[in-house]
């Protein structure tokens, strides 16, 4: 497998960054690990974490097709999840920056 420059995708005009908030039964069901695997399979960078209010928060960055796929997946989640809503506005402020890799962050 060829090694790519991770900044090449981030510098693309087509790259977008979305700030997700996923509601429903999304904690304690493997949602974060599954989202990370799904993001990595579509070459999406960013992060995911649980929030104290029971939601899952994520920042996802990639091309339009990859983001479309991750948003569709986020609406389903892993088998044990029951997603009721996914909010996905464009990222702003401190979340609108280049990301490399996909991390699971601690609960804030």
Cα-based radius of gyration, to the nearest Å: 13 Å
How much of the sequence is in beta strands?
25-35%
The poorly predicted ranges are 1-11
* Alpha plus pi helix count: 3
Structural class: alpha+beta
In CATH terms, what is the fold-level topology?
Answer: Alpha-Beta Plaits
CATH top level? Alpha Beta
The proportion of residues forming helix, as a percent range, comes to 25-40%
Order of helices and strands: HEHEEHEE
Q: Total strand count, please?
A: 5
Fold blueprint:
Elements lengths: L5 H5 L5 E10 L5 H11 L3 E6 L5 E7 L1 H11 L7 E6 L14 E3 L4
Parallel strand pairs: 2-5
Antiparallel strand pairs: 1-3, 1-4, 2-3
Short description:
By secondary structure, this protein is α+β, with helices and mostly antiparallel strands. 25% of the residues lie in helices and 30% in strands.
Word description of this protein:
With 108 residues, the protein is of the alpha+beta class. It has a single domain (12-90), classed as Alpha-Beta Plaits. The chain contains three helices and five strands; from the N terminus they run H-E-H-E-E-H-E-E. It starts with 5 loop residues before the first helix and ends with a strand. Residues 1-11 have low confidence and may be disordered.
